[in-house]
Specification:
163 residues, alpha+beta, 39% strand, single chain, 8-stranded antiparallel sheet
């Protein structure tokens, strides 16, 4: 992948705004399940890293079906990604990503047999942004009620992550 493409530049800019993701996986019966996960690292090529428990349903789902969806939301910006996930058992990478906040969930540290990594490679996505953030959005909604017209402004774009 070339990290200088406009899509990757925009994706990397957007990902800096988010700390948490809802990662949606598919269970054996086909049902969709969303899992709140903390983004531990984002790479410039659209890969995201998460620390998860080895017995988490997300791990089981990804091992069977690697297709995932990720949703992000923050003040006036929303991002949806589609990607492929994989469970990565890499102690060196786990130690690199480890932090004291992770210890709240995994008190035995990165060498615990109950912890692993989930790597998601983004393939495509869509983002929405409201110009001016939360206050501008609130004003636009009020103006919409007063005028009867749909709120205008903001950004929306779909993109593919180059391979």
């Amino acid at each position: 992948m070339t990290a200088t493409t406009p899509e990757l530049d925009k994706l990397n800019e957007l990902l800096k705004k988010f700390r948490f993701a809802m990662v949606t996986t598919r269970a054996e019966d086909g049902a969709l399940h969303a899992h709140p996960l903390t983004v531990q690292e984002t790479e410039s090529d659209g890969d995201l890293w998460f620390i998860v428990g080895t017995h988490a349903s997300a791990v089981e789902h990804v091992r069977r079906d690697p297709q995932v969806g990720l949703s992000f939301s923050t003040d006036g910006t929303w991002l949806s990604l589609a990607g492929e996930a994989e469970v990565v058992d890499d102690l060196a990478k786990l130690k690199e990503l480890w932090s004291t906040s992770v210890e709240a969930w995994f008190p035995d540290g990165p060498e615990s047999p109950g912890v692993t990594l989930l790597k998601v490679s983004a393939l495509s996505g869509e983002y929405w942004g409201s110009a001016g953030g939360r206050i501008a959005t609130a004003v636009a909604l009020v103006m919409s009620k007063v005028t009867g017209e749909r709120p205008r402004g903001g950004e929306n774009e779909k993109f593919d992550v180059p391979e």
